[in-house]
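TL;DR need structure tokens for one chain.
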Amino acid sequence: MSEQKTRIAVIGTGHLGRFHAQKFSQMNNVQFVGVVDVDGTRAEQVAKEVGGKAFTKYQDVVDLVDAVTIATPTTTHFEVAKFFLEKGKHVHIEKPLTASVREGEELCALAKSKNLILQVGHVERFNPALVAAKDKLGIPLFIEVHRLAPFKPRSIDVDVVLDLMIHDLDVVMSLVKSPVKSVSAVGTPVLTKTYDIANVRLEFESHAVANLTASRVSLNATRKFRVFQKSQYLSIDFGSGEVHLTTKTGEWVPGEEPPLSIESWNLEKGDALMAEDSAFVSAVRGEAPCLVTGEDGLNALRVAELIREDIKRRL
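>> reply
TL;DR here they are.
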């Protein structure tokens, strides 16, 4: 794409939609068209805050944009994304990609057939702590993840697997790079009618194992990611940006200190959402490949669906 600015609108002005609108409105290579929300008052508030126009129907912006970010409830992702893809518009869609694998497959096929960018909003991929730690990672043998959060009355149209755990499923899949061989999961409702707490053990064909726990009814927020590999242990705190790496440096001799090198560093949290939105614009403009593709989102969704099926089987 030339030096012409990329025209973008944000569909949905809830918690994340408002933040996406803020990011796009700050970019020099973007013409921020505005925001869309069925709540006209909310759309007007956000448009007044970040600039651009307010709309109540997403169909009204289709001729005004080159691309959109969709931050509506998960159950509407398919309908809205399909509309824009069919009209030849690039789409950035908040996680999860869709409410079902079937819907996700249709969107991915549609985007591919029209040679359009379909990026999924797995923001942890842009977390500075993960970006810095990736260079230290080899072949993971065991991954342990805890993502716990206090209850918030949003995103309750889906269960905790699609709400929170899917962040980490995407990261795990991007690191292990191997098909899932088996799934063993348990979960239960607490405050909502869907699963609010879930735990899963994933075994991969590479023989790697991942154990993930997600809760949206915890007292305190925790976002910790631990990776064990040959002669190394890496710990990442996505919340604080702290990274710890323990590496074996030689053979241990009984009676002597263990030959371990321990590195610790703290990264500035940075602005992962700005990095995500900027990556989408770069992909749309043909300046860089899409970093989190629709297929990536679909892979995470496929595993999430296996987890949900196993939880249902046990209840």
